[in-house]
Amino acid sequence: xxxxxxxxxxxxxxxxxxxxxxxxxxxxxxxxxxxxxxxxxxxxxxxxxxxxxxxxxxxxxxxxxxxxxxxxxxxxxxxxxxxxxxxxxxxxxxxxxxxxxxxxxxxxxxxxxxxxxxxxxxxxxxxxxxxxxxxxxxxxxxxxxxxxxxxxxxxxxxxxxxxxxxxxxxxxxxxxxxxxxxxxxxxxxxxxxxxxxxxxxxxxxxxxxxxxxxxxxxxxxxxxxxxxxxxxxxxxxxxxxxxxxxxxxxxxxxxxxxxxxxxxxxxxxxxxxxxxxxxxxxxxxxxxxxxxxxxxxxxxxxxxxxxxxxxxxxxxxxxxxxxxxxxxxxxxxxxxxxxxxxxxxxxxxxxxxxxxxxxxxxxxxxxxxx
Length: 370
Prior knowledge:
38% strand, alpha+beta, single chain, 21% helix, four-stranded antiparallel beta sheet, cell projection, 3 domains, flagellum, 370 residues
């Protein structure tokens, strides 16, 4: 047995522990979404002005000139037939989320993104832009100074860009002008939708709520839904009932899952991932071919010609890898990864090993590759 194989097996034996830690209790409000308590997406089309020559080229973005003309017309400035092509204006899309139970006069954050060929929105000001919901109604109006998270500098022969200067945010940049009609107090039954559907977690939520009220007020409908009877809670309103149950602690159950990112070499796994008895062998084979032609000169005062003689060097190298090793039955994936890390296995090689173990049917978890 090679020293590397012996080290790996000893490390695996040392890491295997019979105790399995349970999940930490989580508040119900962090596990579910309450039916009807949701936000609404808003979108608008506006204009950012005051840019330092980094706006849209109006020849390539005629819609910018059109909206600028409309704004000036509404302000009483007649620009019909005029030719003006400023470089400090950019057309943008403005997006925001209307929070649940938001009231008129409240302020919300907005995101501003250029849609033309503007180079930067840094230092620009968004002109009053109405924000519409999916029903076509205006629910908020946005205006303010754009805070861009990027920067761009350029010269005659080079340029450098940091972040994304063509997008930015306006904190508290929109004022709510219209409220969403939703009467929570009129509901007799409320559904709790689990963010990660699971029968065990839904059953535990049902049991925890019924235990808190001392009677049957919650019923599990399926793996993703728990129904709450507001009348049975004997609370003054649905809001009071939700305020009481949202901080109840529940231990969630999650499906065993492994997520790997091939681009960055990141591996994320749950504690419930297990591996059956399997043998692993891994190594890298490298073939190298180098061409080094040599020029041969003729003897002095001879009629010969210079000849190029080909010279080729070929070699096969096998890098150090993992020799044939056996992983005990019931070993957790975290223990296997810890052993591979101790041996200095590269993240990309580790991902290939995990793929092979999954293909062999020994990795008992959902395997997601991105």
